[in-house]
């Protein structure tokens, strides 16, 4: 198959203007494709564009409440406007689709409950992975990564991968609060290595407010996720909303143990024997701290228990996912 890339540039970093440009460009591309072949199948993503055919949903804006209390007024106003527009576009695009593909059972139920999409129009296709790129980490990789980030072998390192903007949806504030409690009761050197772009100065200030300025290292936006994860002992994701949670998925593929909130779609894939690593309430700081402490004390055993789950996730590649999508969508004559 041929792939043609259409780049929609972000003017002045304005997401709102970019969304409008993306929808306009999408309509044009779809129109041209249907002129060339009226039987062509059109797959769009969420509210980004209206295709009236297949919609592949990676987030349900109606199910994601804003987590911006206490943030600057300007951000809150822009955030609320963005969410209003996203929900409006989401209603139009998804309700018009003949087939809706969800990335988790969680997303499927949110589509049914929030948008009234009939169950018979929804199919669930989980995300795949690159089994080579996310093959289990080696001891040499771990040592090199620790050296790269200035971490010692004695350090117990918690990893976090997610947006670090003003919005607290990904739960980094919960992780900081849990780490503060751990420092008060743990006898080991605790460190946090966080990857993700956004309001880094704000989170440095927050880290200092919790008394963690010497424990938290903010990497910022990076394309070297494997290197970041190689340096950590345990990935922690207390996200308040995540339709799936690809970072958690990839960490498990790499052989890392993970703690995740039940509000992430990927949590539904955890086998029963790993259910203790699912936190029921993303805002429960005490429960998160307890689970982190238990995992650290039993780290070797926890790693071992994640092995079979890691193998299972690596066995389903991006190619496998693509084949499943094609079998659902079909191809034009």
Provide the fold topology.
Elements: H1 15-36, E1 43-44, E2 54-57, H2 73-95, E3 99-102, H3 105-115, E4 122-124, H4 139-148, E5 156-161, H5 172-185, E6 190-195, H6 200-209, E7 216-220, H7 225-230, E8 234-237, H8 246-253, E9 258-261, E10 278-279, H9 285-297, H10 299-314, H11 318-329
Parallel strand pairs: 1-2, 2-3, 3-4, 5-6, 5-8, 6-7, 8-9, 9-10
Helix pairs in contact: 5-9
Largest sheet: 6 strands, parallel
Beta-strand percentage?
A: 5-15%
Structural class: alpha/beta
Q: Per CATH, which architecture of the largest domain?
A: 3-Layer(aba) Sandwich
- The CA-CA distance between the termini, in Å, is 13 Å
Coarse shape: globular
Stretches where pLDDT falls below 50 for ≥5 residues?
Answer: none
- The CATH homologous superfamily name of the largest domain equals Glycogen Phosphorylase B
Average pLDDT across residues? 92
List keywords for this structure.
333 residues, alpha/beta, Rossmann fold, six-stranded parallel β-sheet, four-stranded parallel β-sheet, 44% helix, 12% strand
Descriptive report:
It is a single chain. The chain contains eleven helices and ten strands. With 333 residues, the chain is an alpha/beta fold. The chain folds into two domains: 130 residues, Glycogen Phosphorylase B (Rossmann fold), CATH 3.40.50; 176 residues, Glycogen Phosphorylase B (Rossmann fold). Strand 3, helix 3 and strand 4 form a beta-alpha-beta unit. Helix 5 packs across helix 9. The two termini are 13 Å apart.
């Amino acid at each position: 198959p041929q792939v043609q890339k259409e780049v929609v540039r972000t003017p002045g970093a304005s997401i709102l203007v970019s969304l409008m440009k993306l929808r306009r460009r999408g309509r044009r591309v779809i129109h041209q494709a249907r002129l060339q072949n009226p039987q062509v199948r059109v797959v769009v993503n969420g509210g980004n564009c209206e295709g009236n055919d297949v919609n592949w949903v990676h987030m349900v804006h109606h199910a994601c409440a804003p987590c911006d209390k206490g943030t600057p007024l300007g951000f809150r106003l822009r955030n609320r406007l963005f969410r209003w527009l996203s929900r409006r576009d989401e209603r139009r695009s998804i309700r018009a689709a003949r087939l809706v593909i969800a990335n988790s059972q969680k997303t499927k139920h949110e589509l049914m409950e929030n948008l009234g999409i009939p169950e018979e129009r929804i199919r669930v296709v989980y995300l795949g992975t690159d089994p080579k790129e996310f093959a289990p980490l080696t001891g040499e990789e771990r040592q090199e990564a620790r050296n790269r980030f200035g971490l010692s072998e004695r350090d117990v390192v918690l990893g976090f991968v997610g947006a670090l903007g003003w919005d607290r949806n990904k739960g980094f504030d919960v992780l900081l609060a849990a780490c503060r409690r751990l420092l008060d009761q743990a006898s080991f050197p605790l460190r946090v290595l966080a990857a993700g772009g956004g309001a880094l100065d704000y989170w440095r200030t927050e880290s200092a407010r919790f008394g963690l300025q010497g424990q938290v290292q903010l990497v910022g936006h990076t394309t070297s996720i494997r290197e970041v994860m190689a340096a950590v002992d345990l990935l922690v994701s207390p996200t308040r909303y995540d339709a799936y949670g690809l970072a958690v998925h990839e960490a498990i593929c790499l052989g890392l143990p993970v703690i995740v909130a039940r509000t992430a779609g990927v949590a539904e894939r955890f086998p029963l024997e790993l259910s203790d690593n699912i936190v029921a309430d993303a805002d429960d700081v005490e429960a998160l701290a307890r689970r982190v402490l238990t995992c650290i004390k039993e780290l070797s055993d926890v790693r071992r228990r994640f092995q079979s789950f890691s193998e299972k996730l690596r066995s389903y590649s991006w190619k496998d996912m693509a084949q499943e999508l094609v079998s659902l969508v079909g191809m034009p004559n």
